[in-house]
Amino acid sequence: MLPRSVPFAGVDLSERAARRRALSATTVGAAVTSERSAFGPGFPGLLDAARAGAPWALEAIYVELHPRVLAFMAGRAPREAEDLASEVFVSVAEGLSRFDGDERQLRAWVFTIAYRRLSDLWRRSHRRPTEPVETAKLDEVVGAGDTEAEAVDALSSAEALRRIAALPSPQAEVVLLRVVADLPVEEVAAILGKRPGTVRVIQHRALTRLARLARAGTDGEV
């Protein structure tokens, strides 16, 4: 069973501000790869323990990935975000014994489950999300934080997530998976069922639009 007492600490991406600036400046044909390692060289042992059901190992995975999954859900389905994130980690706990891969593959697997849960929600409701996201709702889910001048440097804030959520669905999904989930282009392409080149084009358009909105100081159309 997953620990239910772990507090939600929010999504802190400030340590990767320089990387996000590089991401926003990436050309359409280039790729930005993630060098981040949350668990370090002890990941194989942690994964073995989690597969065996060790509470400390399950908690470590939960604490690291749950805020990112919750932020992803808040950007796509804010009213159902907490329930969907909980469903994701139930599936993670049930499927870990069959998972085999490294830390990056674990993140990709978890967010593949998350995207499937979103797809199930949209299928049940016969819609893709179109309603505006309330900033107050995202404040509840993601936690407060100072919004920096550039959108791509403020993705840890509820305001930035609201801006991302206002993007067309394909753009929002790519930005959330690239920056919040911290996945490389190839993994995002596999999750979304798109070509890597298509993901790069969508990413370029989305981040250009977010930066333009930030400079204009408005969430309106540009």
Question: Top keywords for this entry?
Answer:
222 residues; mainly alpha; globular; disordered N terminus
Commentary on this structure:
It is built from ten helices and no strands. With 222 residues, it is an all-alpha fold. It has one domain.
Could you give a short description of this structure?
With 222 residues, the chain is an all-alpha fold.
User: What's the number of structural domains?
Assistant: 1
Name the helicity range: 55-70%
| Helix/strand/pairing category | mainly alpha
Q: Give the low-pLDDT segments.
A: 1-35, 130-152
Report the oligomer: single chain
Number of helices: 10
* SS strand fraction: under 5%
Secondary structure elements and pairings:
Elements: H1 17-24, H2 43-51, H3 55-76, H4 81-95, H5 103-125, H6 135-142, H7 158-165, H8 169-180, H9 185-192, H10 196-216
Helix pairs in contact: 2-3, 3-4, 3-5, 3-6, 3-7, 3-8, 4-5, 5-9, 6-7, 8-10, 9-10
